[in-house]
Amino acid sequence: MHDLGGKPGFGQVDQSGAETVFHDRWEAKVFAMVGAGSAAGAWSNTDRFRHAIERIDPEAYLTHGYYGRWLGGIETLLVEAGIVSQEEITLRAIAFGASRNDLIAAQPSHSPDPMGQPPGSSGSDRPISGAPKFKLGDQVRSLGNEVSHHTRLPEYAMGKRGEIVMHHDGWVFPDTNAHGKGENPKHLYTVRFTSEVLVDKPGFAVCIDLFEPYLESVDVR
Amino acid sequence: MSDDSPQAIRAEALESILIEKGLLTAEAVDDVITRYSERVGPMNGARLVARAWVDSRFKKRLLTDATAIVESFGFEGGQVEKLVVVENTDKVHNAVVCTLCSCYPWAVLGLPPKWYKDPAYRSRIVMEPRLLLAEMGVVLESDVEIQVWDSSAEIRYMVLPMQPPGTRHLNEEQLAELVTRDSMIGVEILRQPG
């Protein structure tokens, strides 16, 4: 599963439930395991982790909750890195009371991406030498095609016309970084899409942060 | 409360394996719980909002360079490499989402509430925000434009809510008490207290 923006069929937002940071201790354990898995070398950047979450079983994605999705991502990457085997986890889970038939979120690939270079510095903000292609107020159109690799262009905003409202200089490009193909910093912009463009109705706008390669100029003559 | 869902059991199983392999300590989970229950949370964002209400120069800086302000306050918790604060007015109402994964400015708002990460909010807020916000208790006049911020890269967003009426006499600390997490996500309008 990629973005959920505009996916039909979901009902009311459920704001009930206890206002605790973690609803059960296992959720905090998953949070702690993110740090452990990264330290163990199963992944070296957030983009790879996010891509692993997108690759989990889609039914689990929608039903296992946020930390269940994280768990699926962690397990996927730990198995792909050869740190644990999926059978080892399953046997331990059965020993802890799980069933052999439980839905497992993780879907490790048999031919995982190369790990790539570890990040040269922390965070994702990077110097960039090339000049930005767009300036504030420019009209742009987002790419219209779905891609098979990791991307941060939400599907509901594909092939839409918007306006550049902020420029954030250079940031690590998730589309390559998630696959071990380097940070390749790109100019990042906030693009404002009106509701007329998105849903053909007035009354709102959505601002989305998009990397320069996702955008092309619109001729406004 | 104890959870016996398959994902809960699998998390326990994976944790025990990682501890055996020396990749995780049993204490790590307590560190996480302490940090995000006690030190990191919406009380940090509320301090910024309250100060912006009483100090117009601070407000201007908050709306133009929130990242530097967060750094100067020394908030821990992460996910604010670049923070942008957007102001609610009687003409524009802002709300924040991440349709892709649930990105959220942890250092100022803590870890996100469950509903923020659930499919209903993530799918609907970018398509029918007026209806969804009304369902969540935010009924907006038709001339108020809604602006939704989808945190699709590493920029994080926080809403500066409008100061509730009848609170001009309160000091900064008292005002901070009134600021809720949901108002800083943009799914609540603060009402006159009492």
Q: What is the helix content of chain B?
A: 40-55%
Query: What is the CATH-assigned architecture of the largest domain in chain A?
Result: Orthogonal Bundle
Known CATH architecture of the largest domain in chain B: Alpha-Beta Complex
- Basic shape of chain A: globular
The biggest beta sheet of chain A is recorded as:
5 strands, antiparallel
Distance between the first and last residues' Cα of chain A: 39 Å
In terms of DSSP E residues, the strand content of chain B is: 5-15%
Predict the CATH topology of the largest domain in chain A.
Cyclin A, domain 1
CATH topology of the largest domain in chain B, by name, is Nitrile Hydratase, Chain A
Give descriptors for this structure.
heterodimer, A: 221 residues, alpha+beta, Cyclin A, domain 1, SH3 type barrels, 2 domains, 5-stranded antiparallel sheet, 7 helices, 5 strands, 29% helix, B: 194 residues, alpha/beta, Nitrile Hydratase, Chain A, two-stranded parallel ribbon, 4 strands, 46% helix
Question: What's the short story on this structure?
Answer:
The complex is a heterodimer of chains A (221) and B (194). Chain A has helices at residues 25-39, 46-54, 58-63, 65-80, 86-95, 174-177, 195-199; strands at residues 139-142, 161-171, 186-194, 204-211, 215-217.
Textual characterization of the structure:
The complex is a heterodimer of chains A (221) and B (194). Chain A has two domains: 1-110, Cyclin A, domain 1; 139-217, SH3 type barrels (Roll), CATH 2.30.30. The two termini of chain A are 39 Å apart. Chain A has a five-stranded antiparallel beta sheet. In chain A, helix 1 runs parallel beside helix 4 (65-80) and helix 2 crosses helix 4. Chain A is globular and about 70 Å long. Chain A has seven helices and five strands; from the N terminus they run αααααββαβαββ. Chain A is α+β, with helices and mostly antiparallel strands. By secondary structure, chain B is an alpha/beta fold. Chain B has two domains: 6-37, no CATH class; 41-185, Nitrile Hydratase, Chain A. In chain B, strands 1-4 form a two-stranded parallel sheet. In chain B, helix 3 crosses helix 4 and helix 3 packs across helix 10 (172-178). Chain B starts with 5 loop residues before the first helix and ends in a 9-residue tail after the last helix. The model of chain B has no long low-confidence stretch (mean pLDDT 95). The interface between A and B is large, with 89 and 71 residues.
